[in-house]
Design goal:
The structure is a single chain. This protein is of the alpha/beta class and 804 residues long. It is built from 21 helices and 38 strands. Helix content is 27%, strand content 32%. The strands form 7 sheets. Strands 1-2-3-4-5-6-7-8-9-10-11-12-13-14 form a 14-stranded antiparallel barrel. Strands 26, 27, 28, 29, 30, 34, 35 and 36 form an 8-stranded mixed beta sheet that branches. Strands 15, 18, 20, 21, 23, 24 and 25 form a 7-stranded mixed beta sheet that branches. The protein starts with a helix and ends in a 6-residue tail after the last helix.
């Protein structure tokens, strides 16, 4: 029996003496090019169903063999369809007097490091003549690192002998470029002249250009070529005997998910990536019914546009953008990096204030809408005071303030700013103004004095005036950017959604096993045990990341005005323990002051934006109590007590609002205790910052007293290490973890919530009913912590984080 006869009988017909080999591993996978785990996704579960757990996109693959005859001889063909975790195949064989189709349904679950899968096969057509039987398949694979893959597949037919296939592959470079593979089949009835092993190599010489070679112990070999053009691919494989005589060909066509493209490296810069910033920019978005942009997502998109060879620039639509000043600064800095690659930035604005124009000024070209308005009004920092309101309501308030700049409760105790608060707030807005002034002057090529003149003369500029002043480059609508790009570049450019860039479409078969990760942990909102940063849960999140061997570094992003010292300290202590195991980099957002700085102080490196509000190392307290409100409401209270001070917090609850007001103020001896608690807590705060920052307590005391600082000033005085954003913090973490130049991925903690139920809240008379009102929440928080010493900022600064 010659070799071609063996192939025909063993792999194709499955008749006569070879009928028992129908379920053989090699006869089933005759249309494959390598062992299952060596290249891409094998035959999409037809060979080893566990491989389906690594599939990231739908795919269709059609292959046929000519058996050494015409290329369009379809006597043996296979159709393989798959979506992530599920695969279906149909393989048809035609022989004289017999046509049979073998079907298989497979599923696989797991990760890139380990997966298991199961399949069920059945036949149709002349299956009785071909002596087919149902087939159960079970498979698994294990990829402990980027260099090795091991798989085991068991085949259990309802008729005939079971067998097990063992396959392995090695990637010497830890990527898809070279894979050396082999497999072996075990069956009790195995004969010496049966096929039982193969070995070969797969080489991806260029992205999407793959060569395969495979030798079988029956002394014939296959040579294959695969070409991928993105969403479509073609392949061909030829079989030769030991004397190099050609036996047959296999052809294949793939459609579906994007694959590495042989033309991508040859792409010219012929397109602009569109980035639409409509709506809020959050840290995390809801998993369903939420199209919001996120800070990390926008950073990733800009990075993707920077490295994509087909992209020559980025066009940004800022209309309807809702974002805080620090996130804007971070994105501006990222666009500065983008421009340093030689690519251009075009930004469209319609109604822009100081912060939005500061962001837009980084662009090569700014387009303003014909009906657009640009306001350069400067900056103001004001406060609302409720002392008179509380008196009218009949609520008493006593502020316990022992530090010059700690002004968190001035809203309730004063009628205007204290000198300390006025001083620090003026310094903050001057720092922010100078940052914006200098950046705009540099980017737009105007002097700082000229910018001051525009701010201090007529702060509102219509589109024509803005153009005349050199603040913008063109008047037009968003769609007019294409023409401006053509004028600037000297040729037309395609505009494409930034989500269509190659980075976001590539398969993940280039990396085996679980990528090392950097955990970005968010601490957002008031420092409290069960709200805001939710310290009880956050402690466990930090501990989990610290003990996870796959997490190589932690980036702890803070946007918090402080609150409960206990909540801050519990989390800070867990971060201190975590940095004994791995790098912990702190990234400060809009506000990371008071209790927010308490969270920061143990970081290996503290990264803040130039305009972050940081510091405020101080503690304050206060006491709300009833004067006349209860009586005005016609309410009375009564009580019995055991213990002189048992009634300290006793009072009445305002109906509907759920606000509880104590009946009385503190006694003199109680006030002394409160003072002692505040000063003791302050001293502890100073000592902890001194330890975390490796500075003397005296030097910390000089910059403390509850004073807030800008991020730029924070670096100057030593409470901040690096000026930068979240991206900067991640880069530092990657370097400290030894991941530079390596594959890694970012995990965000906590996981994004599922859905925003507040969007379904009803409206009454056209007024939307909100599930929560931030101002009322902050008042309630203070009342719940009435009399407790707190490292916290004023109400106005708490409002800075409402958009997170």
């Amino acid at each position: 029996m010659n070799l071609r006869t063996i192939i025909l009988s063993l792999f194709i017909c499955g008749l006569s003496a070879a009928q028992s080999d129908f379920h053989s591993y090699y006869s089933q996978n005759f249309l494959g090019f390598t062992s299952p785990g060596a290249m891409k996704y094998g035959l999409y579960g037809h060979d080893n169903p566990a491989i389906l757990s690594t599939l990231t996109h739908p795919d269709i693959y059609f292959a046929w063999s000519d058996l050494g005859k015409r290329w369009n001889d379809f006597n043996h063909w296979g159709l393989f369809l798959a979506v992530p975790n599920v695969g279906f195949s149909a393989v048809t064989t035609k022989a004289p007097g017999i046509t049979v189709t073998d079907y298989k349904l497979s599923t696989g679950f797991g990760s890139n490091a380990f997966g298991i899968g199961f399949g069920y096969g059945w036949s149709a057509g002349d299956w009785q003549k071909a002596v087919r039987s149902d087939l159960f398949t079970a498979g698994t694979f294990f990829r402990p690192n980027p260099y090795a893959s091991v798989g085991i597949t068991g085949f259990l037919p309802t008729r005939g002998e079971a067998e097990a296939a063992f396959d392995f592959a090695v990637r010497p470079f830890g990527n898809e470029i070279v894979s050396v593979f082999g497999d072996y089949v075990y069956r009790k009835d195995r004969k010496l002249n049966d096929i039982k092993w193969s070995g070969g190599i797969s080489v991806e010489a260029l992205p999407g250009f793959r060569l395969t070679g495979r030798y079988f112990d029956t002394k014939f070999f296959n040579v294959g070529l695969h070409l991928s053009f993105g969403y479509i691919g073609i392949s061909s494989q030829s079989s030769f005997d030991k004397d190099n005589n050609h036996l047959s060909n296999i052809y294949g066509i793939r459609l579906g998910g994007y694959d590495r493209n042989i033309f991508s490296s040859l792409s010219k810069r012929n397109s602009y990536a569109e980035l639409n910033l409509l709506g809020p920019v959050r840290y995390q978005r809801f998993r369903f019914l939420d199209n919001s942009n996120t800070l990390s997502g926008l950073i990733e998109q800009i990075d993707a546009a920077a490295i994509d060879p087909s992209v020559s620039g980025i066009a940004i639509n800022t209309s309807g953008m809702m974002i805080d000043r620090v996130k804007l600064w971070e994105l501006r800095e990222k666009l500065r990096e983008f421009r340093n690659t030689g690519k251009k930035v075009f930004i469209y604005i319609d109604r822009a204030g100081m912060n939005q124009y500061h962001f837009a000024s980084i662009a090569d070209k700014i387009v303003i809408d014909p009906l657009g308005i640009l306001t350069l009004e400067g900056y103001v920092a004001g406060r609302t005071f409720f002392k008179g309101t509380l008196e009218k309501l009949g609520i008493g308030y006593e502020e316990w303030r022992y530090f010059k700049y700690k002004s968190a409760y001035e809203n309730f105790s004063e009628e205007k700013m204290s000198e300390g608060d006025r001083e620090q707030r003026l310094k903050l807005i001057k720092d922010n103004y100078n940052l914006v002034r200098n950046d705009i002057a540099e980017s737009r090529g105007i002097s700082g004095d000229a910018f001051d003149g525009m701010v201090n003369s007529v702060p509102i500029y219509l589109s024509e005036e803005a153009l005349q002043k050199g603040l913008v480059d063109k008047i037009g609508r968003w769609e007019d950017l294409k023409e401006l790009v053509k004028e600037t570049e000297g040729e037309s450019k395609n505009f494409r959604k930034i989500s269509s860039l190659e980075k976001f479409k590539l398969p993940e078969d280039n990396y085996w096993g679980e990528k090392p990760s950097v955990a970005v942990i968010y601490a957002l909102g008031v420092c409290a045990m069960d709200e805001g940063i939710t310290a009880r849960k956050l402690v466990n999140d930090v501990k989990s990341a610290a003990t996870n061997n796959n997490v190589k570094a932690i980036v702890f992003r803070i946007d918090s005005p402080g609150g409960d010292a206990l909540a801050s300290d519990l989390v800070a202590e867990e971060l201190r323990k975590a940095k004994e195991k791995k790098p912990v980099i702190v990234s400060q957002g809009s506000v990371a002051a008071s209790g927010g700085y308490w969270l920061s102080m143990y970081g290996d490196t503290i990264v803040a934006a130039a305009n972050t509000v940081t510091g405020s190392i101080g503690v304050i307290g206060g006491w709300f109590y009833n004067k006349e409100l209860k009586e005005k409401l016609g309410m009375t209270t009564d009580h019995v007590k055991v213990g002189k001070h048992a009634d300290l917090g006793f009072g009445f609850t305002i109906p509907l609002l759920g606000l509880s007001i104590p009946d009385r103020n503190l006694l003199p001896e109680e006030q002394k205790v409160a003072e002692s608690l505040i000063k003791t807590s302050y001293k502890e705060f100073i000592n902890k910052v001194s330890s975390g920052r490796n500075m003397t307590t005296e030097s910390i005391e000089e910059i403390a007293q509850g004073r807030v600082w800008s991020g730029a000033d924070g670096k100057r005085i030593g409470i901040v290490d690096v000026i930068g954003g979240l991206n900067t913090a991640i880069d530092i973490a990657v370097e400290r973890a030894g991941l530079t130049g390596k594959e890694y991925h970012i995990i965000e903690i906590p996981e994004a919530p599922w859905i925003d139920f507040s969007r379904f809240m009803p409206k009454i008379f056209g007024v939307e009913l909100k599930e929560n009102d931030e101002f009322i929440d902050h008042i309630k928080f203070r009342l719940r912590n009435n009399g407790i010493p707190m490292p916290i900022l004023p109400l106005e600064d708490m409002e800075l984080i409402n958009s997170q």
